[in-house]
Amino acid sequence: MLRRFISTILQIIVPCTLLIPSSLYAQSLTPVKVKQIAAPPSDMVSGLLALPDPASIPVESRSALIPVKHQLIDGQWKWTLPIKVLPRGARIVLLPTVHDSWLTHLVSPNQSVISTDISKNNILTTDPRVEIGTDVLAWVAPDREFAHLSILPGNAGSWTLTILSDHDASGFVLIDAGPENSLSTYIESLETIQNQPITLVSSFSDDARLSSLVAEITTPNGDVVTESANTGSSRITFFPAEHGSYSVRVTAIGVDSQGNQILLTTQHLVYAAEPAPLLQSPAVVELENHVQFRFSPSESTRRTILAAEVWGKSDGVFKPVSWISTIVGSERSLLLDKRWISLAGVSTNSLELRNIRLHDIDSFVPIELIDRIPTPINKLSLPKSPLSITQDMLTGSVMKTVPTPVPPQIVQSVGPGHRLMLIHGYCTDANPFPLSHFSGDLAVFEDFNQSRTHDQFALNILAQSAPMKSFGVVAHSQGGNASLHLLNFYWSGLDWADGGNRRIQTVGSPYSGTALAGNAAVLGNIFGFGCGENESLNYTGSANWLSLIPTASRQQVYFHTTSFEDGFGFDYCNIITDLLLSDPDDGVIERSAGQLSSANNMGHLEDWCHTTGMRDPAQCTDVSRNTIMNQEAKR
Amino acid sequence: MKYKSVIVPVLLLTSTVSAVDICVSPNDLIPDNGSAAVVPIFISATGNEVIDTVSLDLILNHEWVGDLHIQLRSPSGTIITLLDRPGLPSTGFPGPFGCGGHDIVCTFTDIAVIPAESVCSTTDSPVIAGLVIPSQPMDTFHGEVVEGAWELIVNDMSPYDSGEIVQVCLTITTDTLCTADLNSDGDLNFFDVSAFLSAFSNNDPIADFNNDGDYNFFDISVFLAAFTTGC
To answer: Which residues of A touch B95 (CB under 8 A)?
Structure first.
């Protein structure tokens, strides 16, 4: 018994000790097996694989993130913000750059002063109109406590917030006050590309009037520029001269239908992708079992994702044949299994590609979009129409490889068995799943305190799983997105997982992204990031990514979401992120953004939050769910 | 062990071709990452029957066919590889475990069009099914004697997955040599007798009909017996 216990512990510990820090990742390229993905016409007709309407994926906000800009007055650095509080009350979060640099006075309409001095832990008040506390800023700065003040409902009037310091101490105040309008801002085009203007479009809800719109933009090299909308306009445009991540804070001022002033902000992470050589019209080549569409090659080894719809005519009417996609390197081609043509029953001389897309592999920004290219083939030998769609029609029967920078293979870290891999999420310092809730052969994924795009994350899973014959996944947060990305685009032991019912099981995974990605980008500029920005996790990047994931891959995912206990009072998982997310949420992921259409929704539970340190227990510590996931897992 | 034998005669000018079809159902476990599982198949035949074609039907349960290295040994000692860890060597990262599909229900034959090692699927079970081309051609056995102990040798080359050999059927078509047709014209007649006598008088080895190295009455007797039996 003891020997078995030690063996199990070693199986878990040994791989951990052999992990290699990310800084040592080899830059050499490894031929990695990629799938030749195809989806049936039903996925094309349903719109699952269409790029979203940008207006349908806005960042919505009911709060304002306002920079604190001290002025030296009478020898003291001072910043004052008048706050008109309506009967619903207000919430204020103090976000100083340096932990103990602010002394705060909140002055009520009757001029009584409520002070906080975080440095002295003096955050208590006896004023019944105000509640004061501290909390971490989940996901963004989880290791620091920030003070928050709530002016309770029924205390309307003109309040004043004053922040004092003995030096010019910068930071932000996050405030939810005023009318219950929201600000909605979206990026006008999904094609956010270097040297092409990017426009953000903002509006208030409930017919509130916009009077001023300003964007503060931090460029990838740290420069800050300000752009304003023309009077009466809801659009702000900036020009990304560099490729990379731009953090954008949009400040909108307006008036609601009652004449109350509104001040709200939205925070965005906008990725300007590096352009790629244009695709041009493809050469169409007949192979034994496939039709190959060879686009113009790229001179670089940069990997991108290429996708297109195939259409053809039957009885004079265009019909969808298949949607095809793959990761490409310098050679950029798509393979169409001839059986799709037979199945659709279309004439080969009417074939054409539509909605041809080339995506950046990290941000998923569409770098090039082409509406349609006729690709007629006069003579083509076709197989008999298959009775049904087979697995190899969906994932490809040709084993192609693409040179890829992968982390070093973890040689002999765990035996070549069949395992259940527990995968953590974005910027985590530990495995969130209690090992005692799981049994059998396990592997614990480790890439702690890192920010990875979905693709980088998936390649890391691939590298750490390489010694295993097969594995199933139980993943938290972004680990779920990365696992789905791995299954969809690459061949791995995940394809061979067997013996159970569920290949990928996830908890709290942001399939549609999180508003915190944009906020993290803005706030990260002042707090500094241990983990960094993550363009895979904003709403736009997620929507672009999902447009590349067919039903067949999604059906392998069994997802769970949670949120705070929804009682009668003011409920939240993290009081600060609650101001940045739409309820219900788990403190990091909104319930709505945790859904994955066409996958298996295993339900939503209240009373569980995203991580430890939140008001309800961490969602990965739910023993009943973990027990079921352990039992149901393929390995 | 159960033997089944079916002989179907086919007339040729210089020889007869028969089919020998023998099945064994050993239900032998294949040692995981260990020693080989060997299935003997004994075939009895007339001494002058030689191999024309060979095919092998195999029913084998295994959780990971990429572990398997399968060979066939003839009574003459010739060994060919039927399957060599499908999916290996790996064409790219990751590896190196090969095809992870389950089970084999197939016929290894040179007349198939799909190589056994090219068949792999994450969903089909059995993963190797139908007519498949072996790694090395069955034609390697052509012309060897049929009779004797054949062996199917199955090795599991990687740990964690195991299996068993359920049934093996060996189908061999044979040529029966017509030894008395010495001038190989397809007929037995005076010219064959003349050819024998000429060879006999010249101590030509083809006249040594009993293979004893001597040229005497016993060779004449065996020749006459073969001549009388016909082809």
So the answer is: 466
Buried b vs exposed e over B52-65: b needs ≥16 C-beta within 10 Å? bbbbbbbbbbbbbb
CA dihedral (A411, A415, A417, A419) positive or negative: negative
Q: Determine the residue among A34, A36, A498, A634 to mutate to test chain B binding: the one whose Cβ has the most chain B Cβ atoms within 10 Å.
A: A498
Count of CB contacts below 8 A, A vs B?
A: 63
Whether B49 contacts B66, CB under 8 Å: no
Classify residue A287 by burial, with Cβ atoms within 10 Å: 0-12, 13-18, 19+: exposed
Cα three-residue angle B141-B147-B151, rounded to 5 degrees: 65
Q: How far away is chain B from the Cα of A350, in angstroms, using its nearest Cα? A: 32
The pLDDT tens digits for B44-99 are: 876 678 899 999 999 999 999 999 999 999 999 999 999 999 988 776 666 668 89
Structure tokens at A60: 């919505």
* Residue A14 phi, psi (nearest 5): -55, -45
Of the candidates B133, B153, B132, B150, the one whose C-alpha atom is nearest the C-alpha of residue B141 is B150
pLDDT of residue B95: 66
pLDDT of residue B98: 87
Cβ-proximal residues to A298 (8 Å cutoff; 6+ apart), any chain: A276, A277, A304, A329, A330, A332
pLDDT tens figures, A293-328:
999 998 889 999 999 999 999 999 999 999 999 999
> What mean pLDDT comes out for the span A80-104?
91
Distances (CA, A) of A393 to A158, A615, B129: 66, 47, 18
Rounded Cα distance between A518 and A139, Å, is: 12
The verdict on a CB contact (< 8 Å) between B91 and A31 is yes
d(CA B7, CA B31): 35
Q: Give SS3 for B196.
A: helix
Query: B64 and A415: CB-CB below 8 Å?
Result: no
Contacting residues for B205 by C-beta, under 8 A, at least 6 apart: none
From the number of C-beta atoms within 10 Å of its C-beta (0-12, 13-18, 19+), residue B85 rates as buried
Backbone angles phi, psi at A386, to 5 degrees: -70, 155
Helix (H) or strand (E) holding B148: strand B148-156
The reply to whether residue A415 touches residue B159, judged by beta carbons under 8 angstroms, is: yes
CB contact set of A23 (below 8 Å; sequence gap of 6+): none
CA distance A509 to A604: 12
Q: What is the rounded distance in angstroms from the CA atom of residue A297 to the CA atom of residue A306?
A: 12
The pLDDT assigned to A18 comes to 37
**Inter-helix orientation angle B190-201/B217-229, to 10°:** 160
Banded pLDDT at B5 (limits 50, 70, 90): very low
- Cβ-defined contact of A495 to B122 (cutoff 8 Å): yes
Give burial (CB, 10 Å; 0-12/13-18/19+) of B32: middle
Helix, strand or coil for residue A10? helix
- In the predicted model, what is the mean pLDDT of chain A? 90
Total number of residues shown for chain B: 231
pLDDT at A169: 87
- In our burial notation (b when 16+ CB lie closer than 10 A, e otherwise), range A224-254 reads eeebebeeeebebebebeebbbbbbbbbbbb
Q: Alpha helix locations (H) across chain B?
A: 190-201, 217-229
Taking only the tens place, the pLDDT of each residue in A463-487 is 999 889 999 999 999 999 999 999 9
Structure-block tokens of residue A156:
């309307």
Say which DSSP state A300 is in.
S
Cα distance between residue A438 and residue A623, in whole Å: 9
Residues of B in contact with A404 (CB under 8 A): 93
Tokens of A66: 């306002």
